[in-house]
Specification:
It is built from 6 helices and no strands. It has helices at about 5-20, 25-30, 35-45, 50, 60-75, 80-95. The relative contact order is 0.18. By secondary structure, it is mainly alpha-helical.
Length: about 100
């Protein structure tokens, strides 16, 4: 394998990791945008059962990403895609544990 190819592959890997999102940033964003208030209206309590109920809509990381994007649009958060990735990372770390 040529050194240019190895360098290119390494760059692709690093770029992929950078897009993974930061759970700590995501948690802060969820708190700042009062996501729980909407979830509380939907399911009661502290709103977290929305993530853990047996009939939840989110059953894959792709669906989680789509749901975060939908919620962001509905709440007019102004999040960029990389912001949504932070939220996805936190929700996945805290509740879902998708690979």
């Amino acid at each position: 394998m040529h050194s240019k190819t190895i360098f290119l592959l390494a760059g692709v890997l690093v770029a992929g990791l950078a897009r993974a999102g930061d759970p700590a940033v995501g948690e802060k964003m969820v708190t700042e945008h009062a996501c729980a208030a909407c979830h509380q209206r939907l399911v009661g309590g502290d709103g977290s059962t929305l993530y853990t109920r047996s009939d939840r809509k989110v059953t894959s990381k792709a669906k989680l990403t789509a749901q975060v994007s939908f919620c962001s649009t509905q709440l007019k958060t102004g999040w960029f895609p990389e912001d949504e990735e932070h939220v996805v990372a936190w929700l996945n770390h805290r509740y879902y544990h998708f690979k």
